[in-house]
Amino acid sequence: MKSQKFSHDIISGSSQINLPYQAGLKIHALITKLKQANRSEIELLAEVQNHREAIVGEVEFLEVQGIASALCDVFANGWKIKFDDLREVSESSFPFVKAILLKPSMRNPGETLNEAKARARKGLLVGVEQHLKEKSVQEFIAKVEGSEGKSSILQLIDNPLELSKELERYQSDTTKINQVIDPYIQFVEADTKDKFTGIKLKDLWRYCRLTWSMEYNSSPAREVRMLIRNKARVGHPIMGIAMLTNPVSNLSGRDEHMATTYESFISFIQEKSISLTKLIAMMKETFKEEEGLISKKDFNKTKSGSRMAPSYAEIAAQAKVNREQALENDDDASADYFLFHSKRAQKLSDLESALKDLKLLENQTRQEKLSIVDVDQNNNFKLLVKRFLTSKRREVISQDIMDVSVCGAIFPYNSLLVGKLVAYLMASEDVRKYVNKKYEAAENIIRSKTAGKQIKKPTNLKGLTTTSLYGVGSSQYNRLKLLKENSGIANALEWKELKSTEGYGTYHFSKRTKKIISDLEIKKKKFKNVNQKHGEGASPRMRELKANLKLIGFTEDVIKHEQKRRTYFVDLTKDIKESVFLKNKRSKKLNKASEIGKAWMKRHLQQRICNKEILSSLKKEKIENFLLSYKFK
To answer: How many domains in the chain?
Structure first.
């Protein structure tokens, strides 16, 4: 559109924190005491417990506990703390104790890749070990490991020595490879039991997941869990596990790849020679479709006497106030009603504004014969297109994109590149068919409640995303590609590496910290604003953590842990951009899981087991190394 309508120097890699004065003084004193005694700062929380009698009141104790726990978490990940000079600070002059948190680099000077990985893994294990010490988790571990005479997960864990001998027989041509390894996918249903042990599949999956170095958090959203098993061996031992779940709402590399960011979308429409008139029609169709899905029966939008009824924006604002009052009164039903009443009104307000601006653009385009290059730098045009892209991105990731949030090998298959096999299998026809079938008639709860009426939209799995566990060193997804020439596969399969993440997340704060500061929120506010319920918004853990960290003086940028992770994407369509924007429904032929298994053997396994050191190392593995009761005594 041509018209105009349309105190500290913070160090890079650091975060300023402003601790509540009395709590901050106690934290400073305890850290000073630990340093003077040459003790680790990670003992801070234990010191807080030892000095409970010196802390007045429950709120202050929760503040001190929360600060100590959060600091122990980041100390375990290599962070350092530097306090301001406290000699000239008083509670009356400045009610905070200031400090700077210094974040570690992904790789420190002189540090090898393996050392950097080990440091990152050590930080991750803090939360894992805390979780494993919980009584309920200990009881679960004991149940699944079983006792004498009872079924045990050990019956489904392959014997390393026997497996290595079988692989050696294959090397000497006395047996075929599919008589040693023959992988298949077993989907984990709620109460389905393993036919060999009688243990529920969900318990087998959970136990295996607990053996990994990152704390596991369940999700209220879509979840598809899988066991990868070996049909060739007695008991069909578990080779690996995987889980698909809802993707994060914003992932820069993925969003650029799908052309759902402004710059990438403008490049896409120029590449496809889409005119401004055509783009306006695309946006109008999307906005009108959105508007048509929303019920307006609860809104009075007619004149009342001489006074106009409130706007949608005003209705939304009032509903937010009403929700907070309902939460304070423990009225969950009313809080849920006002949550979606607010979302529905706000969405209608946004659509009203967007359609009004779109009409103006449409008229101006017709009158002045405008093209994309005439308007692509106009701020109002950008806002309109970004509103359209937000809608398209929300639609595709809520229905047709899933995240591979768990993907890897299980002992003793770790050294045989089974992690790569699991990643390949996620892009199989078996997985796509299962996901589409599972969610073909599922109601989209959030969209239904936001719209005020039932909305069902079947899933048509179009792509998968994932990120590497560590930001340094190699990843199992690196150069992960099956082609006819390197594996004999019929349909090429590739995990493409995209732009790395920005290094934001919540993994460096433990469940312990989240629980303490959540209790502090309830104590101070008398209610929880984020309740991990459908419809409260994307990334509930992130939003809750950011809000509650503020209560103990931590700024939002502590969420940026600086550990950038590689992003990967596998396209299950012929072209994901065309599928999203041009409604290209041509499906891409995918390989069956059995075909992928054979291709993986040819591409990776056969070469791997030619390495005598690999088989020698496999022979020396002890099955007790897998047991959680042994590993975390």
So the answer is: 3
